[in-house]
Amino acid sequence: xxxxxxxxxxxxxxxxxxxxxxxxxxxxxxxxxxxxxxxxxxxxxxxxxxxxxxxxxxxxxxxxxxxxxxxxxxxxxxxxxxxxxxxxxxxxxxxxxxxxxxxxxxxxxxxxxxxxxxxxxxxxxxxxxxxxxxxxxxxxxxxxxxxxxxxxxxxxxxxxxxxxxxxxxxxxxxxxxxxxxxxxxxxxxxxxxxxxxxxxxxxxxxxxxxxxxxxxxxxxxxxxxxxxxxxxxxxxxxxxxxxxxxxxxxxxxxxxxxxxxxxxxxxxxxxxxxxxxxxxxxxxxxxxxxxxxxxxxxxxxxxxxxxxxxxxxxxxxxxxxxxxxxxxxxxxxxxxxxxxxxxxxxxxxxxxxxxxxxxxxxxxxxxxxxxxxxxxxxxxxxxxxxxxxxxxxxxxxxxx
Length: 400
Ligand SMILES: *Cc1c(COP(=O)(O)O)cnc(C)c1O
What we know:
The protein has eleven helices and twelve strands. Helix 1 (5-28) packs across helix 2, helix 1 runs antiparallel to helix 9 (259-288) and helix 9 packs parallel to helix 11 (382-398). Helix content is 39%, strand content 14%. The protein is an alpha/beta fold. The chain folds into two domains: 38-256, Aspartate Aminotransferase, domain 2 (3-Layer(aba) Sandwich), CATH 3.40.640.10; 265-397, Aspartate Aminotransferase, domain 1 (Alpha-Beta Complex), CATH 3.90.1150.60. The protein starts with a helix and ends with a helix. The strands form two sheets. The chain has a seven-stranded mixed sheet with strand order 1-7-6-5-4-2-3, with helices on both faces. A hairpin with a 5-residue loop joins strand 11 and strand 12. Pyridoxal-5'-phosphate is lined by residues 73-75, 78, 100, 102-103, 154, 156, 158, 189, 191-192, 212. It comes from Megasphaera hexanoica. This is Aminotransferase class I/II-fold pyridoxal phosphate-dependent enzyme.
């Protein structure tokens, strides 16, 4: 804890700044409790829906936002943007190597996937990583040559070993794209990145971005959904794709009401800081007991993910068990590696979430293969991370 103190202070400062941004936005939008009520049917003049769009747009410095419980996941939200903005013959280019696993299905990346972008006739290009980092020269050359309709910039490392992009990285990348191909739409996959820094990708020049509400911006209590924010014409196109051409964002009811979305977004800067502090603490503990970790506990962070190289299958299982026994939900079950659709290797997962699959809540997972890397993410209560991480360390040390 003492070793982490400087990092914790840095993280708390970011949370303070971001909480101020959220408060300012709520005041400007005159948020009141009557806007939290549920609606039915078409949801015409649904005040909660409209106000939620407004506060997301203000906080993220976007012209417009579309915040909807109707998005089933982050992938659905990101796919809505891609499908709305890309037509047959258009070129889409990923600038940071291979995109996140579930986005590969949307693209039709490695293998035939029905209804994918490739099946629609969209041309997919990719600028590979260079020495496991983004390659500005490669990006410049590729964008100059292909003049892509849209580039995809994934902020978080996802399940790869590259570094997460910082806001200055995103600004540099977008600067190069706009210089050589000014009409290209710069789209940021912001999953896991929200509130990890004092600025967001729109401020770094992105035209549009999207993310999941069961990650950072839901604050651990939004029950489902996703958001899109950016240039008004692009957000409108995505809204037309989500509902129907001509309907856009003007329709859509939610019977349960919007309190959890407003409260979650209010809590999101603090909750994101809890998760990042948990990741820093885990890095410090596992470094001290002799495991390689990435990022190191004293490196700056731009997302929630901590990787720990556990050296063998046994340690991965012990780690997952140690985390699971300290979950608020399903603490009595034992995670074991098993096959999962879409994965070649067995996967182990530890999670005890209140919101199913929520990765802003503490979870750990990884494929059972070299280099036996476990991905630890989330944690809405820092004290929980401390107890769970110490439990995981104890399981491994006691079974050496
Ligand atoms: C989580 C995530 C997604 C997809 O979100 P789901 O809600 O799991 O569909 C996409 N990109 C990145 C970088 C993510 O972390």
